[in-house]
Structure to design on (225 residues):
């Protein structure tokens, strides 16, 4: 079956540091890949997505590239801010048979200290 | 426009009671999902509705859990004879040809 494995947290960084949160996946088809973010006290929201190999999703300074050869979708940001503190979830959606069910990783809690 | 809404936002119940959780998806979204988020855990898929197709119930943890979606819109998740391990945040999401939009969740506490 499909699965997502992401870097275990928590991750603590200083403001302006470089961020990488690793995510790898297992899927039998050609999934779409997503990063969702959950800010403290808020609901899950889509951060970025990529729908095919070599696509790069980007939003709010975050980027992730769909790497089919390494089955990875690592999240990166060049200079993090305190406001980026949140829990980040990697997810995939396998479109076979019209089923777009999302499979999530366990989440990575990120804390940015000033 | 309005996002996904869920009610109640919090529910405290006694072990053995039945509960109903409601989800109002974004108008026009054909797909609706229920997930569960337990403390310190990831998101656990429960059930998925897509248009008029038979729902994917593969994530429901036991036969105490059921869900329905009336008229292709509002959905109700029912948990019968609640147990303490059912305590979690229950999240609903809807989508149309792409990424999901999540509701704020219902925090269920079973005493």
């Amino acid at each position: 079956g499909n699965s997502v494995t992401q870097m275990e947290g928590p991750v603590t960084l200083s403001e302006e540091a470089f961020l990488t949160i690793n995510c790898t996946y297992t899927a039998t088809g050609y999934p779409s890949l997503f990063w969702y973010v959950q800010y403290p006290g808020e609901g899950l929201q889509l951060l970025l997505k990529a729908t095919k190999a070599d696509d790069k999703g980007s939003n709010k300074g975050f980027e992730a590239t769909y790497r089919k050869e390494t089955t990875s979708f690592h999240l990166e940001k060049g200079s993090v801010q305190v406001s980026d503190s949140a829990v980040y979830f990697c997810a995939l959606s396998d479109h076979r048979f019209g089923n777009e069910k999302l499979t999530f990783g366990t989440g990575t809690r990120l804390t940015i200290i000033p | 426009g309005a996002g996904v809404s869920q009610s109640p936002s919090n529910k405290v119940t006694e072990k053995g009671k039945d509960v109903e959780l409601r989800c109002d998806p974004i108008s026009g979204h054909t797909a609706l999902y229920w997930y569960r988020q337990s403390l310190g855990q990831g998101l656990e898929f429960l059930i998925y509705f897509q248009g008029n197709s038979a729902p994917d119930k593969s994530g429901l943890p036991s036969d105490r859990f059921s869900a329905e979606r009336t008229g292709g819109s509002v959905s109700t998740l029912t948990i019968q004879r609640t147990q303490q391990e059912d305590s979690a945040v229950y999240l609903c999401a809807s989508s149309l040809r792409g990424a999901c939009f999540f509701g704020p969740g219902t925090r269920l506490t079973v005493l």
In short: The two ends of chain B are 37 Å apart (CA to CA). Chain B has no helices and ten strands. Chain B has a mean pLDDT of 91. The longest strand of chain B covers residues 43-50.
